[in-house]
């Protein structure tokens, strides 16, 4: 804030402001000068000050004489950006046989603020398991997703939620179609008594698939569901 003598002798000038917006304060250093001297004006905006551009009037008073100057003040109400991110998965769908698996890539991207640590998880139906490698990443990184359908998973299409959680959480959807399910691996002949079975043979019994784990000749009462020492349910 500068002053100048325009006529006569230098006189004492008191400095003040008016038209300050709400939440803004002003101070002068010094608050009184002799005409021809300068002062520093400091304007401070509180956190409650509303953003915008305002015209502040600076007043210099010497006795009965007053002079004014206009100052343009812009108040910004921007807050530090919130740390946030987006999630996507590619491919977003797959079709597998029961007992098989598919893979995808879960990608993240910082959308505001700084990168944060993210913990990955999944919401999957019964019979479907999901694993991440790695299971913890930093926003902006990717993870490999393995999605496995057990041999007993019923055929159908399932929506799997792939979740990433930090200070906020986001998810991407993956559509998994399982074929040949509902009874194990979708293969095998019907179990029968008085039949020779070798290790690895697959049979069905009451709609469920079993794999032979010990060679034998079946007898009545040795149905796969009754003798887990001979048969492993799929």
TrEMBL record:
Any one biological process term the GO annotation gives: carbohydrate metabolic process
Residue ranges of the region described as Disordered: 1-21
Keywords for this protein: Hydrolase
InterPro entries: CBM5/12 (IPR003610), CBM_sf_5/12 (IPR036573), Ig-like_fold (IPR013783)
Superkingdom as given in the UniProt entry: Bacteria
Residue ranges occupied by any Chitin-binding type-3 domain in the UniProt entry: 188-234
GO molecular function, one term: carbohydrate binding
Keyword Transport: no
Cellular component GO terms, alphabetical: extracellular region
UniProt keyword Hydrolase, yes or no: yes
Pfam (any one): CBM_5_12
Protein's UniProt name: Chitin-binding type-3 domain-containing protein
Organism per entry: Sphaerimonospora thailandensis
